[in-house]
Design goal:
The complex is a heterodimer of chains A (544) and B (200). Chain A is built from 17 helices and two strands. The two termini of chain A are 41 Å apart. In chain A, 67% of the residues lie in helices and 1% in strands. With 200 residues, chain B is mainly α. In chain B, helix 2 packs parallel to helix 6. Classes of the chains: A mainly alpha (544), B mainly alpha (200). Chains A and B meet through strand 1, helix 7, helix 8, helix 9 and strand 2 of A and strand 1, helix 1, strand 2, helix 2 and helix 5 of B.
Chain lengths: 544, 200
């Protein structure tokens, strides 16, 4: 059965608000929803960043003098939850996915536009709930993992609001995932083959599979946890005969794939950005596709490497160590493919390229510490120390957030029709890169020397290194200022970009900037070689 | 090769295709049901782990009476068949017959829920008595919630398949097909639940 699209029905422009007001409406346009995700996520990033600054101020001295210990725990819980569920996951999936995927598959919108809008509009209320949970009596303070029995025995009202908020965000994520899978598999333009899709489509397909398979498990787990808190059941409460390790297994069954949910889309985005600014085809397209799918499969069976100190039996440790080490293979393939894409290219040094290169450097560092952490003898020593904090932030900030910024510099001309200021952009990159490495590189040393994470007070011998780290955090906070100035100035009086300022070949650049409603005047273009840079065909096209 | 203004042949082929597209609502529903199934999978995994490693307090056992759940299994299996009959009838434009079958399916769903409640009230343990009791109520309760939603949806499409003014016709089968798939899914989950919770 086929559905006919009545042009008058989908094109009811008169009913949709115009101008900036449309970003506050229940818009069904995937481009509007993408920007809604991005701006909403960035506002939460500012909140989460403020909390991170508070944590680093507190850790500049060994005693808990900036805030009391329980407030410190609440702040780090809120920081982690906001950054993961309200900044990285919605932005790197929802924002760029919504904006780009319909262009890449040659569609006029997502497969289920209404579901798409619902998925976005679940985020602001649940985000506000999460922030509000801080102000109720007894805010959540069990960390973003909410491990029982800590989450059961600490004050409960905040924890329950926290759970409800994360459940709503998980629902939003699942709706988004369903939509992406349907769009990529079912809504491709006729004639466009799967192996001709830009790499970001593959990354989002893999990510969405992980979302659909693993997020529901987290939802079920949190429902059981809320039963423990509200109804006094004993699923995870050892006093009542329950089992805390079951929570950890179920939680990490989602939360390890969640790391790939956060980083796979970044892999896709960097694979779009590098070929454009290096003027070379993406190296090893097929291996990229297979390594993404390999990461998806392996990513589902490595979760217990977070639990080597939770009394896991030896066979389980062995299996999960080997499986985790295997993930380094597809990830390494991707890394070498990016380097090979740059090799011999005509590289433009601009903000998008710099942030992408920063990503490659940080990510390989985070990847190496990841392989180290997968080894049981090493992991037992550094478990729950700052080494883990450093590793995690190298992946999630040094990896994904760098790519979010890179993507903003790359696609800003498409979204607004204006260019961002390159000088401010490069300044932004330099401060971010130095600040980030100054903040997190010393934490490897802190962890190896035994400083535990999630504690407000520490041994005074670590003070100097902690102060270096806090200085880095200060630089990271400052780095946001040139970025914000840049965006505001460029939206108002930026240089006009034209439709395709980077001479890119992927489909979103083959329409006007900003794109019209329904993406194309007339037919969607058939892009068979999205990375055909430096080929003869390109020269022929130029001559025309 | 990029072709914005490529050969007219492609444009001609696509000008028709572009105004229509395949109906992928069912595809979306299947994806959602896989996600929903994963929630149950998480619960089942938790239950089986508990059963393997967590000893119950003295006197509590992992054994249940079988008559009511067996009756419930039969009810759900029969209801899947009657739902199928409703779909066949609608396909032949026999709306009133379809409505009869749908109403009967909803009736079976309601009987299932009543039996489930009857079982709840006659069990020797409550929600917080021990780990097995909690898991039992969580699993059956979550499934019961699905049956409740399914029954409500069946009642809605039974109303919509009325002869005059109903939305369901042999041309517009999707609501019926979607609810049918969901109902079979809930039915299948029950069979797994019955085996794991009552028989194992």
């Amino acid at each position: 059965m086929t559905i006919s699209i009545d042009p008058q029905k989908t094109n009811n422009e008169s009913l949709q608000p115009k101008g900036w007001l449309r970003y506050f409406s229940f818009s069904l346009d995937h481009k509007v929803i993408g920007i809604q995700y991005l701006v909403c996520g960035f506002l939460f990033y500012l909140i989460g960043g403020t909390l991170a600054s508070a944590i680093r101020i507190e850790l500049a001295s060994p005693m808990s003098d900036f805030m009391p210990r329980d407030v410190y725990n609440q702040v780090l819980t809120l920081h982690g939850t906001i950054m993961i569920f309200l900044w990285i996951v919605p932005v790197v999936n929802g924002a760029f996915g919504n904006y780009l995927i319909p262009f890449y598959v040659g569609a006029r919108d997502m497969a289920f536009p209404r579901l798409n809008a619902v998925a976005f509009w679940l985020i602001p209320p649940s985000g506000l709930m999460l922030v509000a949970s801080y102000f109720v009596e007894g805010a959540a303070q069990a960390g973003w993992t909410a491990y029982p029995p800590l989450s059961i025995t600490t004050p409960q009202s905040g924890q329950i609001i926290w759970i409800l908020s994360v459940l709503l965000l998980g629902g939003s994520s699942i709706f988004g995932g369903i939509n992406f899978i349907a769009t990529i598999i079912k809504l491709r333009r006729p004639g466009l083959k799967l192996m001709q899709l830009p790499m970001y489509c593959w990354a989002m397909l893999g990510t969405s599979l992980l979302v659909v398979l693993s997020t529901p498990v987290l939802a079920g787990t949190l429902i059981l946890l809320s039963f423990d808190i509200i109804a006094n059941t004993g699923f995870f409460n050892p006093v009542l005969g329950g089992n805390v390790v079951v929570y950890q297994h179920l939680f990490w069954f989602y939360s390890h794939p969640a790391v790939y949910i956060m980083v796979l889309p970044a892999f896709g985005l960097v694979s779009e950005i590098l070929p454009v600014h290096a003027r070379k085809p993406l190296f090893g397209y097929t291996t990229m596709v297979f390594s993404i799918m390999g990461i998806v499969v392996l990513g589902l069976v490595v979760w217990a490497h977070h639990m080597f100190t939770s009394g896991t039996p030896p066979w389980m440790r062995l299996f999960f160590t080997i499986a985790t080490a295997f993930i380094a293979v597809p990830t390494g393939i991707k890394f070498f493919n990016w380097v090979a894409t740059l090799w011999g290219g005509k590289i433009s040094i601009n903000s998008a390229m710099l942030f992408s290169c920063g990503f490659i450097i940080n990510f390989v560092f985070g990847g190496i510490t990841g392989v180290a952490l997968a080894q049981v003898p090493f992991d037992i020593h550094v478990h729950d120390t700052y080494f883990v904090v450093a590793h995690f932030h190298y992946i999630v900030y040094g990896g994904t957030v760098f790519i979010i910024f890179s993507s903003i510099y790359h696609w800003f001309p498409k979204v607004t029709g204006k260019m961002l200021n390159e000088k401010l952009g490069i300044l932004h990159f330099i401060i971010t890169f130095i600040g980030f490495n100054l903040c997190f590189a010393p934490q490897h040393w802190l962890g190896l020397n035994g400083m535990p994470r999630r504690v407000a007070e520490y041994d005074p011998q670590f003070q100097f290194v902690n102060q270096i780290s806090s200085l880095g955090a200060l630089l990271m906070a400052i780095s946001t200022i040139p970025f914000l100035i840049n965006v505001f100035l460029s939206v108002r009086n930026g240089k006009y970009a034209g439709d395709n300022p980077w001479n890119a070949l992927t489909p979103e650049w083959l329409t006007s900037s900003p794109p019209p409603i329904e993406n194309w005047e007339g037919e969607a273009p058939l892009v068979e070689e999205p990375y055909g840079y430096g080929k003869e065909i390109l020269n022929e096209n130029k001559n025309i | 090769m990029t072709t914005l203004d490529s050969s007219k042949e492609i444009q001609k082929n696509n000008s028709e295709v572009n105004e229509t597209h395949e109906d992928f609502r069912m595809f979306g529903l299947i994806t959602f049901l896989i996600a929903d199934g994963m929630t149950f999978a998480g619960f089942f995994a938790a239950y089986l782990t508990y059963k393997a490693v967590n000893p119950l307090p003295d006197g509590a056992i992992y054994e249940l009476e079988l008559p009511i759940p067996t009756l419930n299994t039969i009810l759900l299996l029969v209801s899947s068949a009657t739902f199928h009959k409703a779909g066949k009838a609608l396909l032949k434009d026999k709306n009133s017959e379809s409505q009869k079958w749908l109403s009967f399916t909803a009736f079976l769903g309601i009987i299932f829920l009543i039996c489930q409640l009857f079982e709840y009230f006659h069990l020797p343990f409550g929600l917080t008595d021990n780990l097995f009791a909690s898991t039992f109520y969580a699993l059956t309760g979550f499934h019961g919630l699905h049956v409740t939603l399914g029954t409500l949806m069946i009642l809605i499409i039974a109303w919509q398949s009325r002869i005059n003014g109903g939305r369901l016709t042999s041309q517009n089968m999707f609501p019926l097909e979607a609810v049918e798939l969901y109902w079979h899914f809930v039915d299948g989950i029950w069979v797994i639940l019955f085996i794991i919770l009552y028989l194992l």
